[in-house]
Amino acid sequence: MTPRKRPEVKFAPRETFESILEYAVIPTFDLVVELPEDGGVILVRRTIAPYQNKWALPGLRMFKPESIDDVIARVAEDELGLAVDVDGKRFLGQYVGRFKTEHERQDLSTGYAVRASSAEIRINPDHFSGHQIIKKWGEVPPATGAMYRYYLAEYFDKADALHGDPEPR
User: Fold this and answer.
1) Is the pTM of this model over 0.70?
2) Is 50 exceeded by the pLDDT of residue 36?
3) Dihedral sign, Cα of residue 58, residue 64, residue 69, residue 70
């Protein structure tokens, strides 16, 4: 994996961001991060809205002037302390999240699966209270947000499980 030069991003002042939340859809990226040597994938316990106190996948919003690969690399680094292979990313799908928090926020999330270069996880304590590693669909905790269940079902090829079938035929 070649180290990436991070583009400089600017954060909107909170008051401006509140207006954005009220009137615009937020583009976000969520990752199924695979640990080396079939070590499983990482779930994190969120401490912030939306999905506060739920199991989730690491994810953040996109900023100008980032590319998709820039966002993926930043999410893995900032949220988990990991470098990932963005060249080997696999598209999982998109999900529209509608939330009752923050001005009835609406996100357009794009999910990717990526492989980490190491298993030395350092979660972002400002966003997460813990993490766990899962290796199969049956290990997805019930308190996992719907958007993340969608991506995990796609990843584990269990799309039928989203429609009430815990173990697809």
Assistant:
1) yes
2) yes
3) negative
